[in-house]
């Protein structure tokens, strides 16, 4: 819980008014997202992910009941909003991430899920239902992956959320594959019919471990199936994507609208950039510690996150890295890392990250791929002057313009995403 006195009102220094309106189904397309991660998806990690190109961020799963009796408090200096339980902050956020923040709920009860979502509604843009956690603490009480085999309950939670949330709050779900593709498709159809805005598919089954290769080849059929349902719902691939560049491979392989990254971002929250940070001990650790300290992130949580960071080492030697890891493992508070964090002000570091997100709104960071090639129509013999029976006439020339999103012009204007944008013909 915070050291500072809090107020229930918003920060006294309002942020620059965001031009971005609420989320639509299209916002879940052409994105590269930070996955929900308990512990590793803490506020500072989400801010660094947004600064370095994540289009949107999912918060860590929070079980419905855990948030219900929390007290919302706003730090009057930093603007950080904390939902505090008896002894600790259950969830912390900052207004800068609100346009990009999806709050993930763990639930096995439609009423509790709705109450949980209503508790945090003023600080988020969407709610996501976790239908994939295979851990016994989740499945024993019917939550997470247990919902995959209880589709009535799963869909009743999504239906209740959609009915009770105002239209500007999106409702989404994150599932795993079922052992049979046919069962996955049946489940997907039911989920899509609840009125959700997007569906994330973690391409592993409940019994697969993270070290098992994700079955991303299963996704294309699911993507085509959802497209065929005609509701404009994005399918988000999750599993084994390492960063921005790799997301292009994943989308080309699967046809997915977007990609979501967990462990790649746990290792390096700048993996969303075309140029992820290298030498993370020098280029990420100090800044992360400063942002975490200023935002009052619990030191043990910060220490856990920093310990996970790995990146390509160019200048930092193995022994320097080892020494820093030793220092961090001995540290009990931010004070023990103060000399390493340097004289640079934590407030300035925090303001810089807020400013970077304001200047380059993450939802405009899109990965626009050229349209997938359509199957070539069978070539007709030169002598054939009439369209043979049962053969479609080819489209008249000029009608085949590729679909361009409404914000295509803006996307082209982005400086460092140009290599992934198609050249208009
Ligand atoms: C540390 C950690 C915490 C996680 N916590 C959650 C969670 O809160 N909710 C959830 O749906 N998935 C959670 N996951 C699963 C990830 O979101 C993701 O589905 C999985 O790691 C596969 O993606 P990846 O191959 O990119 O790591 C977690 C994964 C990790 C590594």
TrEMBL record:
Please state the span of the N-terminal signal peptide per the UniProt entry.
Answer: none
Q: What GO MF terms are annotated?
A: flavin adenine dinucleotide binding; tRNA dihydrouridine synthase activity
Known cofactor(s)? FMN
Renumbered to this chain, region (Disordered) spans 1-20, 370-408
DUS-like FMN-binding domain: which residues? 34-314
GO BP: mRNA processing
Cited InterPro entries = Aldolase_TIM (IPR013785), DUS-like_FMN-bd (IPR035587), tRNA-DUS-like (IPR052582), tRNA_hU_synthase_CS (IPR018517)
Q: Give the matching SUPFAM superfamilies.
A: FMN-linked oxidoreductases
Pfam annotation, one family:
Dus
Q: Catalysed reaction(s)?
A: a 5,6-dihydrouridine in mRNA + NAD(+) = a uridine in mRNA + NADH + H(+); a 5,6-dihydrouridine in mRNA + NADP(+) = a uridine in mRNA + NADPH + H(+)
Identify the keywords attached in UniProt to this record, alphabetized. Answer: Flavoprotein, FMN, mRNA processing, Oxidoreductase, tRNA processing
Gene Ontology CC: cytoplasm
What is the protein named? tRNA-dihydrouridine synthase 2
Q: Entry's Gene3D superfamilies? A: Aldolase class I
